[in-house]
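Subject: design request, 775 residues
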């Protein structure tokens, strides 16, 4: 075992304790700017934040948004038994008028198209005329504007960022609130769209924090008062934790970080790890022998726990930093931010906390008896129990681990790997109105996932009749594809304009008439509010088509992209003029599908890196080969059995649950480092039983209470309204409990087997001379 010379560390900690008032003053000055930058951290759960900025799909989508703007879309969905009855049309017109008064909003319903075509519209007298107009072309049904039993009001939001999005949706909700409360003659008025999902997640993440962190604060308060029976110890804990989370959040604000659905795990993970290390240090401090002064024992306790705490915090920090390999932006940011927060943790637990212990004069067990005396009985019983059942405990643990591997990765030809859930609607409570409305709309429309086909050519390309004709035929092919629900593009608008003018809903077949239409295309593109969204009117060189499909996973998106390119190649053969254009699929569906594709690599790569890093930390701290291998058993057992429970419960991997493996491994290995540090501290000069008893006395109680902190801290997220977060909470808490059980059962049993030792009583009985019978 390698460690810094005790004399050196004790001298360092004597200096830290001596400078306690200066240390407190330093952190007091630091906390003000940290709190100010922390207050600037905002929430944003937009889909375009899913991928890292270096990802090619992210860059392509950003280039597209820069060219055409970042408009977002929501839909008001008006259900009615007879959607074209006079009363319904009047009601829908009232709704659209109310929404039209909201700034940064543009509507485009069938009523809007009809009003523009007829230079006016009186819903009280022209309802049947409107119906004839809508039924006269399949374009309106293809766009989802009309359908059996419903009309829709598509809304374009000209917003930039989460604040403007939330404000616009709040004003829309305010405008339609009377109609939602009293929809008659409609049967229902529903509001759906990805912006609503993003705002729901923003608010849900904030609410989760407001619920979880007070719960964690109460948990820490109860734990400290129960364990140490001291308000002064509680104050030292609370102040250190408050400074830690403030510095961490201050760093996030300083670099311009933005929170997403998983970012609430950042301060909680830092708080939990910090609290666990404070328990390790303070428990060692309160266990002062009567013959040692408080000052000397304080320095001894800090020096004694320095190597184990440093190794565990370092391994945890680097383990979380391993998440930087992920191409999922929120996960990468979380890993880096937690790693930085754990650096602050290491500094604080060995500077501010010792200073507070001395200033507040926190009592030891000599002055105040602590909780956990029952643990002595467990220490006396556990070594013999684990020895007796070692051939059941270790193989049983390995069998459960094997089942967990199969549950996660499947078995070729027999069991499929664990399923992935990437649709953001799955992150919403099934009891919410938004979830029900979205599912209802998915039943009635062909799909809500948006994929964009971006077309780029030369200056004036879109004014050439041959290119316009070819684009229209290309769009028709896409509309006929069973993978695609509907397609809207610039030729859709042209066809609508012709239909409104009484010329049918097809482009002219006559070449001269088509040329006249394209000659006026640039004028139309700059004037028509709908067409201008699909055309880059300044140079007439770029346009796009919007494809609506059911939600796609990565393989589904790849098939869609291949199908688009297949249709494009076929159209190039029929319309050679299209060769001037390049085609590429971009959009939110592409980003979401790519995120889904990156989930499993994130799990495998980050977990593998975390294992390597933590094993390397064990390699540095422990010279025993057995220690390096045995120390991984509890964490691996907990994680793999947790995946087995997920599979049995039918829980899918998602952007939150994918983090459990790295989080549990990175956090629970603290227990194993402290376990082995104190085991080898005694075992190198004694027996295996000596090492186990010493470990249980010195670190066992801390491991037990640290597990309570880990499990209870993450369990606070069970209060979150978002399924991924409360799933994470329950599963993480389960994994920590499983890890602790393995710490006290499978791990000691494995040590008995590795060291091929026996309990001292059995060895003494075996070595005792046989009793002689009297003559």
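Subject: RE: design request

Done. Sequence follows.
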């Amino acid at each position: 075992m390698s460690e810094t010379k005790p004399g050196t560390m004790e001298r360092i900690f004597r200096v830290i304790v001596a400078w306690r008032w200066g240390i407190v003053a330093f952190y007091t000055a630091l906390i003000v700017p940290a709190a100010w930058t922390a207050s600037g951290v905002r929430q944003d759960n937009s889909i375009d934040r899913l991928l890292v900025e270096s990802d090619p799909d992210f860059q392509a989508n950003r280039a597209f948004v820069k060219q055409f703007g970042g408009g977002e879309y929501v839909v008001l969905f008006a259900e009615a038994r007879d959607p074209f009855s006079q009363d319904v049309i009047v009601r829908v017109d009232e709704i659209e008028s109310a929404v039209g008064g909201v700034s940064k909003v543009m509507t485009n319903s069938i009523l809007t198209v009809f009003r523009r075509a007829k230079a006016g519209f009186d819903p009280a007298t022209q309802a049947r005329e409107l119906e004839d107009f809508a039924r006269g072309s399949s374009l309106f049904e293809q766009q989802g504007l009309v359908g059996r039993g419903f009309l829709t009001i598509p809304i374009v939001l000209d917003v930039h960022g989460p604040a403007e999005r939330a404000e616009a949706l709040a004003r829309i909700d305010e405008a339609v609130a009377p109609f939602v409360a009293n929809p008659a003659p409609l049967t229902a008025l529903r509001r759906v769209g990805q912006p609503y999902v993003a705002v729901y997640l923003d608010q849900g993440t904030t609410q989760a924090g407001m619920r979880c962190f007070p719960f964690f604060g109460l948990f820490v308060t109860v734990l400290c008062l129960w364990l140490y029976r001291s308000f002064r110890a509680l104050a030292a804990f609370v102040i250190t934790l408050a400074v830690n989370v403030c510095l961490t959040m201050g760093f996030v604000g300083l670099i311009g970080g933005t929170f997403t659905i998983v970012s609430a795990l950042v301060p909680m993970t830092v708080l939990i790890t910090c609290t666990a290390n404070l328990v390790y240090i303070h428990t060692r401090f309160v266990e002062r022998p009567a013959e040692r002064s408080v000052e000397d024992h304080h320095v001894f306790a800090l020096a004694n726990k320095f190597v184990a705490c440093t190794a565990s915090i370092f391994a945890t920090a680097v383990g979380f930093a391993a998440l930087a390999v992920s191409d999922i932006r929120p996960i990468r940011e979380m890993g880096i931010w937690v790693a930085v927060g754990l650096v602050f943790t290491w500094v604080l637990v060995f500077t501010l906390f010792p200073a507070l212990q001395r200033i507040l004069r926190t009592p030891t067990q000599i002055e105040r008896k602590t909780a956990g005396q029952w643990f002595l009985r467990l220490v006396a019983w556990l070594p013999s129990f684990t020895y007796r059942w070692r051939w059941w405990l270790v193989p049983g643990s390995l069998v459960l681990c094997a089942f967990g591997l199969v549950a996660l990765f499947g078995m070729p030809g027999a069991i499929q790997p664990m399923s992935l859930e990437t649709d953001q609607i799955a992150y919403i409570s099934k009891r919410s109105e938004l979830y029900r409305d979205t599912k209802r709309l998915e039943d009635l429309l062909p799909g809500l996932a948006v994929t964009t086909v971006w077309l780029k050519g030369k200056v004036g390309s879109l004014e050439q009749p041959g290119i316009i004709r070819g684009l229209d035929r290309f769009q028709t092919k896409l509309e006929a594809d069973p993978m695609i629900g509907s397609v809207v593009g610039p030729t859709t608008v042209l066809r609508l304009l012709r239909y409104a003018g009484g010329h049918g809903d097809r482009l002219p077949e006559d070449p001269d008439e088509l040329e006249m239409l394209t000659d006026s295309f640039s004028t139309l593109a700059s004037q028509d509010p709908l067409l201008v969204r699909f055309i880059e009117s300044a140079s007439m060189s770029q346009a796009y088509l919007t494809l609506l499909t059911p939600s796609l996973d990565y393989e589904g998106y790849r098939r869609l992209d291949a199908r688009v390119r297949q249709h494009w190649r076929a159209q190039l053969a029929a319309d050679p003029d299209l060769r001037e254009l390049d085609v590429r699929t971009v959009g939110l569906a592409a980003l979401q599908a790519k995120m889904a594709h990156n989930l499993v690599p994130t799990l495998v790569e980050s977990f593998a890196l975390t294992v390597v890093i933590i094993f390397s930390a064990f390699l540095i701290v422990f010279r025993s080969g057995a220690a390096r291998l045995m120390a991984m058993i509890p964490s691996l057992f907990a994680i793999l059995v947790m995946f087995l429970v997920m599979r049995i419960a039918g829980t899918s991997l998602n952007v939150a649950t994918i983090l459990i493996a790295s989080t549990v491994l990175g956090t629970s290995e603290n227990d194993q480092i402290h376990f082995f540090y104190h085991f080898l501290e005694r075992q190198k000069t004694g027996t295996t039983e000596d090492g186990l008893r010493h470990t249980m006395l010195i670190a066992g109680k801390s491991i037990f209470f640290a597990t309570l902190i880990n499990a209870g801290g993450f369990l606070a997220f069970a209060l979150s309204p978002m399924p991924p977060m409360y799933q994470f909470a329950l599963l993480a808490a389960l994994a920590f409990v499983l890890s602790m059980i393995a710490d006290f059962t499978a791990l000691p049993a494995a040590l008995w087997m590795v060291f091929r030792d026996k309990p001292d009583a059995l060895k003494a009985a075996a070595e005792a001379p046989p009793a002689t019978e009297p003559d």
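The first strand starts at residue 42 and ends at 43.
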